[in-house]
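FAQ: What does a multi-protein file look like?

Like this. Sequence, then tokens, then the next protein.
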Amino acid sequence: MNPTLTTRLANLRARMAQTNTDLVVLGPSSHMLYMADLSPHGDERPVLLMVSPTFAGFLMPALNVDSARQHTDLPFFPWADADGPDAALKDLLAATGVTRTAPSIVLDETMRTDFALLVLDALPGARRRFTQDTVGYLRSRKDDAEYDALKKSAVLNDAAMAAGFAALRPGITEVEVATVIRDFYKANGATTEFCSVCFGPNGAFPHHHTGDTRLMDRDAVLIDTGGRIHGYPSDMTRVGYFGSKPQGFDEIHAILDRAVTAAIAAAKPGVPASAVDKAARDVITEAGYGPNFLHRTGHGLGIDVHETPYITATSNTVLEEGMVFSIEPGIYLQGRFGLRLEEIVIIRNGTAEILSDMPRTAISGG
């Protein structure tokens, strides 16, 4: 087995011991990709990875076995369409050695409900929870290889963002700017994870759907974009304007930059995630725009664009070395414009290190 996967499996078993977990069950998901470097075709045919303290193996449709074997040497318990998965599932459960009447099991919260019910029906006395304190816990603490991949993805995203702002010209549409960014990712070996381009009042919608709005003088411009390369995504928001600045732009931009700076300073090992949210939110509230900050301060980033830890006012997650997350306060002024500044940081060597190399200064177009 790949040494990284061997380490991850050992780490998972250590967490299982610490959390009194008898069995972890994962479906086709980023959790399975993390644990086994396998992302099988997801359809109605049950695919499961089961990990116990003494065994790990797959329930796998027979027609996928040969392809999946290229990625893992863990044992398969195959089943054919003509037979159904019940017998193979029974054999796999027996192999795990889980014999307690009421085992403590962890289910992948992202897998299909019918897959989860197969497991629960086979273990009727099971006490079940989701992956937060096992696989999710491990995934939130990035290793050196993950740091390198995320850093490379962030630096490429800097250049994609610059290409988007460089494309601004009178009358260009949001969709056309997004196409420039998507083409940049493709030309540099990456895929587009998402791309939101917002002109003028559209920036006041935190999740604006990029459309046919045309760029005009005095428009604020907000671009939130991310690509994926080497298996890991990027995520960053930058703002600017076209022609003349809209009234109030500099004030809001300065407040947000102070909020980002305060949140980064607060993000240290041993600090609850809620304290990072508070640091950003206090700056905005004290400036008189508290009601215009409409969302949490951040989310974790890893294999998924959104994963633990979540930087919210109520999160009691304690930050630790290796955690990667966004800091992205925003102020949204309906009918005028909205601004958001976003950095991805990693808790590294006791502080929050920014992955991007791109300044947060406003970008002038036109």
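And here is the next protein:
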Amino acid sequence: MTDTPASFADDLDLALRLADRADEISSARFRSRDLHVDTKPDRTHVTEADLAVERALREELASERPEDGILGEEYGTEGDAHRQWIIDPIDGTANYLRGVPVWGTLIALAVDGVQVVGVVSSPALGKRWWAATGAGAWTRDAAGAEPRPLRVSGVADLEHASISFQSIAQWDEAGYLDRLIALTRSVWRDRAYGDMWSYMLLAEGVLDAVGEFGVKTYDLAALIPIVEEAGGVFTSVTGTPGPGNGSSLASNGLLHPALLDALA
């Protein structure tokens, strides 16, 4: 464990233990032939593993932090929002149910609406990333491996940038497809790596920017501390901070003004 400000050290430790529990549950059902899948009212999928992970984390939080509130993708909001744990039990459910290894559990703590702890755990990739305000951002490549610090890239010009746009359909539905196409013509490289992995590649300095639409608070809350503690900037596509704006634009910071201009 890396040094963490005393105010959030216990919270980060708890979040990492919650991630261990989530990994046990999700890994056991990944690529199972009898995995049960339902369709939610918004036409997205939910698996038995999504539900089991969130139930387990809620039970742990009820025991460890009974005064704190919880916001989860599958079971909604409960408790006080002053200190709120935000859970996406399996980010990348479509990948999970198809057997694609790009998925993970997202766990965040927000205090008065500010994300101060974030953990992203991707057992199928053998990776975990985490951060707490003032403690930097960290990753490890396998269980028991030595943590290493994260730092965003130093790319300062769009013509040298590598970006991830997540999904053409998202940008088309949001009315931004023409601007996305124009942006891809001005950068060095564009790909759609998808879900939480794009943002973690940004924090590692491998990508330079990520943009996305159709996202909810639980999709982004855990990512924000990691990107920001790695030196990046995280806003909506229109430049508004926070995870509840329906879109995201994360970058190494140096490129953020140019990206906002390109998408305006």
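Q: Is there any per-entry metadata?
A: Some entries carry free-text notes. For the entry above: The chain has nine helices and 15 strands.
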